[in-house]
C-alpha cells in the first residue's frame, strides 16, 4: 500500500512523539514493574526505532515531569495518574472500592459563608441574582497533597441543610450526610495552565497543567441547586469514560 507522505513527515521527531505517547500511557497506568522503565536497548528493539528517537522520547517525558533517570538505577516513573470514572465524578453512581470518591479524600475549607447569589451563578441555577446562597470554597486533598480547588454556590433551601460538620471527605459525601440528594449533574471541562493563585493552593509551579470545570447539580424536582467552579491538577488526575452502542 502506498504511504501517504503527508503522514510520514517528521522522521525521527515523529517516531519520538509516538514513542512518547505510548510510554506516557503506560506510565500513567502504572504499567511498569516497580516503576522502572525498560533500558534504551529494549525500547529500541520494541519500537524498531533509532537510539536518537528513543532518547528524544525519554527527554520529552522528563520535561513533562513523568520520569527521571537515576544513575546506577535507570529510568523510573515518578508517579502515575489517578484515573476516575466520569460517572463517579458526577456523583450519580456508587464509587468503586478504592476510588478516591470512596472516602479517600479530605478537605481544607477556605471559606464557608452566606452570600447574595452572584449573577453568573444565578444564571446557571435559573435563579435571581442576589438570592440567598451558601458559598463554600475548599481544597480537595488526597494522600496529604492538594488535588483540586472548588468554589460552590448553593441556593436555598438546600444550602440551609449543610453544616461544616458534614464536610470531611468529599462533596458528595457531605451532600449525602446532609440529606441533599443528587439526581443529575452537568460538567463542562477545559484545559488551562496554573496561575499564581493555583500555584499557591495546589502546590504546583505556575504554568503547570490544570483542568477547569463548571458543574451544575440538580435535585429530584429537576431544579438546579448548586453551581461549582473547579480547578484540578492535570498532573495527578485523568478521566475514564465507557460507552456502548445499543443494538438496533
Structure write-up:
- This protein is an alpha+beta fold and about 250 residues long.
- The chain folds into two domains: about 5-75, Orthogonal Bundle (Arc Repressor Mutant, subunit A), CATH 1.10.10; about 80-240, Chorismate lyase-like (Chorismate lyase, 3-Layer(aba) Sandwich).
- The protein is about 25% helix and about 30% strand.
- The protein contains eight helices and ten strands.
- Strand 5 (about 130-140) and strand 6 form a beta hairpin.
- Helix 2 (about 10-30) packs across helix 4 (about 50-65).
- The radius of gyration is 22 Å and the shape is elongated.
CATH architecture of the largest domain: 3-Layer(aba) Sandwich
What is the residue-averaged pLDDT? 87
CATH superfamily of the largest domain: Chorismate lyase-like
- Reading off the top of the CATH hierarchy, the class of the largest domain is best stated as Alpha Beta
Largest sheet: 6 strands, antiparallel
Helix content: 25-40%
Share in β-strands: 25-35%
Write down the domain tally: 2
Strand order of the largest sheet: 4-5-6-9-8-7
* Overall strand count: 10
Quickly count the helices: 8
SSE order, one letter for each helix or strand: HHHHEEEHEHEEHEHEEE
Compute the separation of the termini in Å: 35 Å
Q: Which structural class fits the helix and strand makeup?
A: alpha+beta
Q: Which regions are unreliable across 5 or more consecutive residues at pLDDT < 50?
A: 1-8
Q: Using the coordinates shown, work out and report the CATH topology of the largest domain.
A: Chorismate lyase
Determine Rg (CA atoms, Å). 22 Å
Q: What is the approximate shape?
A: elongated
Amino acid at each position: 500500500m502506498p504511504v501517504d507522505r503527508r503522514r510520514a513527515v517528521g522522521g525521527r521527531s515523529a517516531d519520538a512523539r509516538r514513542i512518547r505517547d505510548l510510554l506516557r500511557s503506560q506510565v500513567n497506568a502504572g504499567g511498569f514493574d516497580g516503576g522502572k522503565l525498560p533500558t534504551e536497548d529494549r525500547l529500541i528493539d520494541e519500537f524498531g526505532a533509532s537510539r536518537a528517537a528513543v532518547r528524544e522520547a525519554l527527554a520529552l517525558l522528563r520535561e513533562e515531569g513523568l520520569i527521571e533517570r537515576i544513575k546506577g538505577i535507570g529510568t523510573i516513573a515518578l508517579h502515575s495518574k489517578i484515573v476516575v470514572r466520569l460517572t463517579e465524578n458526577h456523583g450519580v453512581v456508587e464509587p468503586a472500592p478504592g476510588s478516591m470518591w470512596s472516602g479517600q479524600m479530605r478537605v481544607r475549607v477556605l471559606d464557608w459563608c452566606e452570600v447574595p447569589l452572584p449573577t453568573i451563578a444565578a444564571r446557571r441555577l435559573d435563579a435571581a441574582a442576589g438570592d440567598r446562597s451558601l458559598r463554600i470554597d475548599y481544597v480537595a486533598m488526597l494522600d496529604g497533597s492538594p488535588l483540586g480547588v472548588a468554589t460552590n454556590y448553593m441556593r436555598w433551601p438546600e444550602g440551609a441543610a449543610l453544616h461544616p460538620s458534614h464536610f470531611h471527605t468529599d462533596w458528595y459525601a457531605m451532600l449525602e450526610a446532609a440529606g441533599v440528594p443528587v439526581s443529575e449533574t452537568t460538567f463542562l471541562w477545559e484545559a488551562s495552565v496554573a496561575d499564581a493563585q493555583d500555584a499557591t493552593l495546589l502546590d504546583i509551579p505556575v504554568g503547570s497543567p490544570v483542568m477547569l470545570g463548571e458543574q451544575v447539580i440538580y435535585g429530584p424536582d429537576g431544579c438546579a441547586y448548586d453551581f461549582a467552579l473547579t480547578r484540578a491538577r492535570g498532573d495527578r488526575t485523568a478521566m475514564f469514560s465507557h460507552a456502548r452502542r445499543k443494538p438496533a
